[in-house]
Design a protein that fits this description.
The structure holds 2 protein chains of 2 kinds. Chain A is built from 7 helices and 9 strands; from the N terminus they run βαββαββαββααβαβα. By secondary structure, chain A is an alpha+beta fold. Chain A folds into 2 domains: 3-197, 2-Layer Sandwich (Alpha-Beta Plaits), CATH 3.30.70; 209-252, no CATH class. Chain B is mostly helical. Chain B folds into 2 domains: 36-333, Formate dehydrogenase/DMSO reductase domain (Formate dehydrogenase/DMSO reductase fold, Up-down Bundle); 434-600, no CATH class. Helix content of chain B is 55%, strand content 4%. Chain B contains 24 helices and 9 strands. Chain B has helices at residues 3-28, 30-33, 44-56, 59-69, 76-100, 109-112, 119-138, 140-143, 150-158, 160-180, 198-225, 231-258, 271-291, 293-297, 299-323, 337-360, 396-414, 417-421, 454-461, 467-470, 499-503, 512-515, 554-573, 581-584, and strands spanning 376-377, 393-394, 434-435, 438-441, 450-453, 494-495, 550-551, 590-592, 598-600. In chain B, the strands form 4 sheets. Chain B has a 3-stranded antiparallel beta sheet. In chain B, α3 (44-56) runs antiparallel to α15 (299-323), α7 packs antiparallel against α10 (160-180) and α12 runs antiparallel to α13. The chains are: A alpha+beta, B mainly alpha. Chains A and B meet through α1, β2, α2, α3 and β6 of A and α1, α2, α4, α7 and α10 of B.
């Protein structure tokens, strides 16, 4: 099963039960405003939050668990991993704190323990341990209105399409997360435009790791090519100089 | 004072400041000592120290290629200093990275845990390998001084060509991979800078910069040690540099045209002018200067072109590293003084190391005369009768030590302890709750509070007898102290205990031992509880029992007070809504208080949850 979450903002009443459940299950500290916080409510101590979108819609923000996550591709030590369950999880014992994942995430999700002397990256891990044992994430379990539900990605995607076609007047005809940056495991249907969840530029459907792939694939060729070219040049130039008779003895 | 000594003095001052900042960085963490944030996770240390530092170290591979691959023997005189600069530059980059990493002691993880998809993985490996190559390339120079090392030295010189070739390969990878780093963030980097060929653009500019740093460094050290600069030789490097810069201009503008971004060049935002400034400084002006033969051959012309070019390329690296990232409203970032001090300190320490090595080893044809030979003159006085004893010699090292220690002390003085103590929590003064029968409880007056039905609660809880359920009398014998008078910060606990009053003759006139036990350290931790003396501080039946001197933050106090009953009632009556945030923090309760002020509550969504997970 590819775990996924579908959030329907038309059903959300903004009660923040999901936020509280998340804090409880993940043993997160009580949150107070910090200098380094963004104003979306997410922080190292809040892995999900409810924000007000356009049209007064309540929108739950959390890690999107991309199908091809930019953070996992960026992490130089592989501390972030996309697991078979669908969750993008974080191994704090590998992390060295470069914060490249925070720079790479198109949704600006990972947050940092800025106040700690031993800081880690913090973000939603889709309650990995719970879904592995057959349970569901704390947030979807706590939702009193069924605005955010847990299930298989294909099933939820079908459900999302069923909802937006059943009441076309209510919903915008788009399932957010269906194919943006290669698709995400956290899907949204809404009556409001949810493009504010990302940076200013509209996201394409190409996964972000594909942007780096050409450069990274070229590395072995560039390296061997450069070595061969330099060795060859050195040999040719050296031979030509010898032939001209001006033998430069390699001196210090 | 000689030029060298003045410079060293200044470098030791900066290094001293940096040592204070560096200690703070590791003792207090990144949040307390930098201005980095969740919106701007990379700052000056990545933009300048790492990206700029690697670019500045490009001179090493350029000159070794010129001498050992293209066999232009006349450049042999500058090869040692170029390799030394590159080596120290890479050491500086590695040290800068240790400051920026949140968990610098885990830096070796890159050797064991591999992710070849990550450009940063490539960057890390290139730094490690090229640093090794550079140290092997430079090792024969200090090894000259000890005959015991002669065999190793001969071995390294035999293997120099493979080393040089490996160094060039690694440099090409490394210079370009710093560009690859940003390929994954098209949504952050402005389209004037973001390009799929960013690695190529970085490599070309690094080659141009490498040539210009060698020119600049030769002139600067010549000025410093009053040597004759190799102006003739450097003109040759200038000739090459101008074509590299022209190539850079063509590739950069061509790339913009192909991507259809030429329109952005005349935008009104701050990015377009920044782009023009950067392009002018790093390519247009230096190339134009180097195309004029008289300028190219003159000492000041070379100096100016190189200095402008270096500034431009470093600006370019800082732009890509963060300055040219698109604004996200709250993304404003200005480096803290500690960040600036550490950056400048790393450069200063590297410069001091450079000066030490050129003075003690044979980096140039002739070793510079010992600039410390002429000691500094300072007045000295007799210790007893303060007679002036004339001007004795003060050794340079004494002066540097003094500069270093004084600067470090000043640095420590400027560290703001409250910044660390607050753990990044901004001070939020609390305002008095307002209203009559319905209280407006919103300490920070931002609308996210609640309209508390005081009269209703009072009636339900049992009239006047119920006061003590929620109120404790903060000050002895005081019956109307407002909550905000002790819980006077929204989120931070504050000390509400007045020690000076308790000990002063005008106040309680208490001797130390009446609260602090004899023979123990006198601190709040070892003192008596308030209630040990103030027996009637809490009326019988009070729900609140404060045991220590610190009052919790206002928000926490209010939450604990209300939620305690609400959670219990929600369970007992089977009404879960009672304990939900939105039960109290809901939108649109209009309230006009006794004085005629009107208020309106806002919905909690969007505000942070300050709840402890109950």
């Amino acid at each position: 099963m590819k775990a996924a979450i579908l959030t329907d903002t038309t059903k959300c009443i903004g009660c923040s039960e999901c936020v509280i459940a998340c804090k409880k299950v993940n043993h997160l500290d009580p949150d107070v405003p910090r200098r380094w916080d963004l104003d979306d409510g997410l922080s190292a101590r809040n892995w999900t939050s409810v924000v007000k979108g356009p049209k007064e819609a309540f929108v739950r923000k959390q890690c999107r668990h991309c199908l091809e996550p930019a953070c996992a591709s960026a992490c130089p030590v592989g501390a972030l991993q996309k697991t078979d369950t669908g969750a993008v999880i974080y191994d704090s014992s590998k992390c060295m704190g470069c914060r490249y994942c925070m720079m790479a995430c198109p949704y600006g999700i990972p947050r940092y323990d800025w106040d700690e002397t031993v800081p880690f990256v913090r973000k939603c891990i889709l309650c990995y341990e719970r879904i592995k044992s057959g349970s569901q994430p704390a947030c979807t379990q706590a939702c009193p209105t069924g605005a955010t539900v847990f299930g298989d990605r294909d099933v939820l995607l079908a459900e999302a399409h069923r909802r937006i076609s059943a009441t076309p007047g209510l919903y915008i005809q788009n399932v957010w997360g269906e194919d943006e940056v290669g698709g995400t495991s956290v899907l949204y249907v809404s009556n409001a435009d949810l493009s504010f969840l990302t940076h200013d530029v509209a996201l394409g459907s190409a996964p972000l790791p594909q942007r780096t792939a050409p450069a990274m694939n070229a590395v072995p060729y560039a390296f061997t090519g450069a070595l061969a070219a330099m060795a060859g040049l050195s040999w040719i130039i050296g031979r030509r100089m010898k032939n001209q008779g001006g033998n430069q003895g390699e001196t210090e | 004072m000689s030029r060298v000594r003045k410079l060293k003095f200044a470098l030791w001052v900066v290094t001293g400041l940096a040592v204070a900042a560096a200690l703070a960085r590791f003792l207090l963490g990144l949040g307390g000592t930098t201005n980095l944030s969740d919106a701007v996770p990379w700052g000056l240390w990545i933009g300048f120290d790492v990206m700029g530092g690697v670019a500045l170290a490009a001179g090493g591979f350029i000159i070794t290629a010129t001498v050992y691959i293209f066999k232009l023997e006349r450049y042999h005189t500058i090869v040692r200093s170029a390799v030394l600069t590159a080596f120290l530059g890479y050491v500086a980059v590695a040290v800068g990275l240790l400051f920026d990493l949140g968990l610098p002691w885990n830096i070796w993880h890159m050797i064991v845990f591999w992710n070849p998809h990550s450009p940063l993985f490539e960057v890390g490996w290139c730094v490690m390998l090229y640093l090794t190559v550079l140290s092997l390339e430079f090792f024969p120079v200090p090894a000259e001084e000890w005959s015991a090392l002669a065999r190793i030295r001969r071995f390294l010189i035999q293997w120099r060509l493979p080393l040089v070739i490996a160094g060039i390969g690694l440099s090409i990878l490394h210079q370009s991979s710093l560009g690859s780093l940003f390929l994954i963030m098209p949504y952050r980097l402005h389209p004037l800078w973001y390009s799929p060929i960013l690695p190529v653009i970085f490599l070309i500019s690094a080659i141009g910069l490498g040539l210009m740093t060698v020119i600049f460094e030769s002139h600067f050290t010549a000025y410093l040690y009053r040597r004759k600069p190799e102006t003739e030789l450097l003109a040759g490097l200038g000739r090459a540099a101008r074509w590299v810069l022209i190539l850079y201009l063509v590739v950069r503008l061509g790339d913009l045209a192909l991507r259809g971004q030429l329109g952005a060049l005349v935008g009104w935002g701050w990015q377009a002018p920044l782009f023009w400034l950067e392009l002018a400084l790093m390519a247009v002006v230096p190339a134009a200067l180097l195309f004029v033969p008289t300028v190219r051959r003159s000492r000041s012309g070379q100096w100016a072109a190189a200095a402008i070019g270096i500034f431009g390329v470093v600006l370019n690296r800082i732009d890509v590293g963060g300055l040219a990232h698109m604004e996200r409203g709250e993304g404003f970032y200005l480096p803290a003084w500690t960040e600036l001090a550490i950056s400048a300190g790393i450069v200063s320490a590297a410069a001091l190391a450079f000066l030490f090595i050129v003075e003690h080893f044979k980096v140039w044809e002739t070793r510079p005369a010992d600039p410390e030979a002429d000691p500094l003159k300072l007045p000295e006085f007799d210790k007893i009768d303060t007679t002036w004893l004339g001007v004795p010699a003060v050794a340079a090292r004494t002066m540097y030590s003094l500069a270093f220690i004084l600067a470090a002390s000043v640095g420590f003085a400027f560290l703001a302890p409250e910044r660390a103590a607050s753990r990044g929590v901004p001070p939020a003064p609390v305002h008095r709750a307002r209203g009559g029968d319905t209280l407006w409880v919103d300490g920070n007056l931002n609308g996210y509070g609640t309209a508390f039905k005081h009269a209703e609660h009072q009636k339900r809880e049992g009239g006047a007898a119920s006061c003590v359920k929620c109120h404790h009398m903060n000050l002895p014998r005081d019956r109307d102290t407002g909550c905000y008078e002790c819980h006077h910060d929204m989120y931070q606990p504050v000390d509400s205990f007045r020690h000076d009053w308790h000990s002063s003759p005008e106040g309680a006139r208490l001797a130390c031992y009446e609260c602090h036990e004899r023979g123990k350290a006198r601190s709040a931790a070892t003192a008596k509880d308030c209630s040990a003396c103030h027996k009637d501080l809490y009326p019988a039946g009070a729900l609140i029992q404060v045991k220590q001197y610190r009052a919790v933050g206002y928000a926490q106090a209010m939450h604990q007070l209300c939620l305690g009953c609400h959670v219990k009632a929600a369970r007992q009556k089977g009404k879960p809504d009672l304990a939900r945030c939105a039960n109290c923090h809901k939108e649109g309760i209009d309230l006009v208080d006794a004085k005629g002020f009107s208020y309106r509550t806002r919905e909690l969504a969007g505000a942070r949850s300050v709840l402890p997970p109950y």
